[in-house]
Amino acid sequence: MEILMDRPLLSLRSTLVFLLALLAGTVAGGLTAIAGETTPRSLLVGLAVTGLAVPFFNRLIDTEATAIQPTSPADITGSADRKSNG
Questions:
Q1: Which of 15, 47, 49, 76 has its CA 20 to 30 A from that of 70?
Q2: At 51, is the pLDDT very low, low, confident or very high (cuts 50, 70, 90)?
Q3: How many beta carbons lie within 10 A of that of residue 14, not counting itself?
Q4: How many whole angstroms separate alpha carbon 79 and alpha carbon 71?
Q5: If you average pLDDT over every residue of the chain, what do you get?
Q6: In this structure, are residues 28 and 53 in contact, taking their beta carbons and an 8 Å threshold?
Q7: 66: pLDDT strictly greater than 80
């Protein structure tokens, strides 16, 4: 019996969010350990930062539906249908 995976387990966006959160938690835990705190406290800080970083990076790396769409060159230079204010 052969099992084929047609799609990845996580999307690229989800993977990036989790990796950035893990990196933030690791850095926070490491800096806490370097500051002289105990290992359990450093682990708790790292886990807390990881948990808080997931929603932060999730909103930071927003979906395409709500992303700012690039403007056309006419919008930047001013379109011809605009009326002057004078």
A1: 15
A2: very high
A3: 14
A4: 12
A5: 84
A6: no
A7: no
